[in-house]
Amino acid sequence: MRVKSVLWAVSVVLWASGPPAQTQQTTPDLDTAYEEGRTITADQGPVEIQGAAGLAVEGPLDCGTPGEVTGSLTISSPDAPWPVLEILDTINGAGLTFFSDAGLFQGGLFSDPSTGGGLTLDLGRNDLAPGIFVDGNFAGTESTRLDIHGPERSITLDTSVGGDASVVLPDGAISAEEILDEAGVASAGTGNSTVNLVGGLQILLSRSLTAPSDGHVLLMGTAQATFTHDENVSTVCEFAVTDSPGDSLERQEADLVHATGGTDQATNDYPITTHALIPVSAGSHLFYFTGYKATGGTVTMSDLQLTLAFVPTTYGTIGSLSDNPAEELEASQERPEGPPIVGSQPSLRRDLVDTRNPTTQDTRRPLR
Fold this sequence. Notes:
The structure is a single chain. By secondary structure, the protein is mostly beta strands. It has three domains: 1-66, no CATH class; 90-172, no CATH class; 174-314 and 340-368, Jelly Rolls (Sandwich), CATH 2.60.120. The protein is built from three helices and 21 strands. The strands form three sheets. The chain has a twelve-stranded mixed sheet, with no helix packed on it. Strands 13, 14, 16, 19 and 21 form a five-stranded antiparallel sheet that branches. A hairpin with a 7-residue loop joins strand 7 (105-111) and strand 8. The radius of gyration is 42 Å and the shape is rod-shaped.
């Protein structure tokens, strides 16, 4: 039986379209027509099958004739004067279309018009605007593209292209915790407070940092050191940034500050800067800014700051102090006459002397 059906909430309208035929009275008994294999031609209007029981079809239901007549199946609503669902043939193949009671397009599932076939899914977010569009064979590439639209922003996932263009997200859509591979910082400071070095190793500042992945942490410690010492008294201090304060003075990160009082009592101010690059694994790590006074008078630390910067990616070789050829160059050169130059050593160690007193002797010595 070739039929085109219209189903109502309380009635089902079933009709068939075919070649024009002479108007004739149809058999009133559908059972008899079916049993006899007769064709019911309804060219005066659709055949109505009424009643709460509706129509039950056990077996195939054909709409249209392959190669001859286009068939469709529509479902209507008592709240709308037009169909709200239609299954029909399109120029590219099958289509399933949804409409609102107001007759406005709501979405559908259609054969993809691109070469190679596939399906497209179109879901509206209201009566007029698109919401989700899935193109199973985007531009005939046999790659799928997903577009999600909202009133203020959209998202695109496109497998037909590679790299950054394959995903388009709204600004700020991904947080640092979700990326898990981004540079991040942490810091600690003393503000206006001061710290006195009393002798021995001291932890001046500490700060923890949670690395989202393997990488390196760049540590930077800065401060101002005020040395107050008696005449002819040397004050020697060492500073370091480290993840292990117990052995910070045995590592290359230690910086040496060596001040000599000269013939008179003296007060000297020195800027302190020390840094280190430490490999880390994913997880929480604690880092320190340490100070060590070996000898001398009073040392007061102020403006202390410890800064941590996590870097996930290495773009070159990471060398150590022993890899620095400048050390060998310095050792091979004669030291010029006159007062030592502050910070002249091209290494992480730094010897600072009181250059304001012409009687100051060059008391530089290696850290170890």
